[in-house]
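#lab-general

N.A. 3:47 PM
ok so I finally got the sequence cleaned up, no stray characters, all 306 residues accounted for. can someone with queue access submit it? mine expired

B.Y. 3:52 PM
send it over

N.A. 3:53 PM
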Amino acid sequence: MTSKYSIKDLERLSGIKAHTIRIWEQRYNLVSPDRTDSNIRLYNDEELKHILNIASLVKAGNKISHVVKLEKQEITKRIQELVANPINVDAFFATQTDNLVIAMLDLDDSKFEKVINTSNLKYGFEETMLNVIIPFLQKVGIMWRTGEANIIQEHFISNLIRKKALVAIDGYSGTAAPDAEQWLLFLPEGELHEIGLLFSKYLLKVRGKKVMYFGQTVPVEDIINYCKEYKPSYILTFFTAAYSQDGIKAYMKRLTDEVKDTKILAAGSQVMGWEPEWPNVKFLSGVYDLIKIAGPKYSSSEKYLA
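B.Y. 4:20 PM
back already:
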């Protein structure tokens, strides 16, 4: 199950420039990667985890010349101290994001639970999602697409995050505003990656919206029939894997032809950066686009549960 990572992979995951990593190798013998016949460096899981921990301590203000002299146990202790007493909130979130990468590589659910629970207690579920989980998913997304993280790791971490989102949704005690807009949330047929949709449900609920959640792989005919009868103000969906660009355009055209009085929002990696071809469609570039449309939180009585 051990993966191999290029130095560019380490740069993306650690935030440390490839040139700097090479210097660390040469000057401090930090890691000893394998090399291909063409002399390309290849790093394993243990070397990636070591670089992530070193990077967290260096970003927190420690000198690399001091950090490389620490034993493994001392590095772990310093990381724990950094989480418990961060120099600032950015350092806390960055360290927790790297800790999630390590938890995924080790298939360590207890470490995952500790990272999320600590973040939830300090800053709440929404901030944990925005500043820890989403950056983590962005870091490892390219690993999943290129096969550098295996399907077991993907399912392991996705299911844990999904569970946290469900608990947060169930734990929210607020009610919809009296004049709340109705939102319909679903994934098209074949789309299974539900984390973004679940987080959207949470964001909308704490902003006082009425949310109808249909979940994964819903036939377009059901969406059209529901919209014609109940006339929601918005529908929100994600395209991440199942459709080609032409398939998405055909899907959106059919939806807009049938549902004319509802605003249609689409998000996900497959439509990132798209410009809409239809007046009632908007493609979201990220979660903050959704927050801008949904507006401020409606109630101050929300509860965040880990």
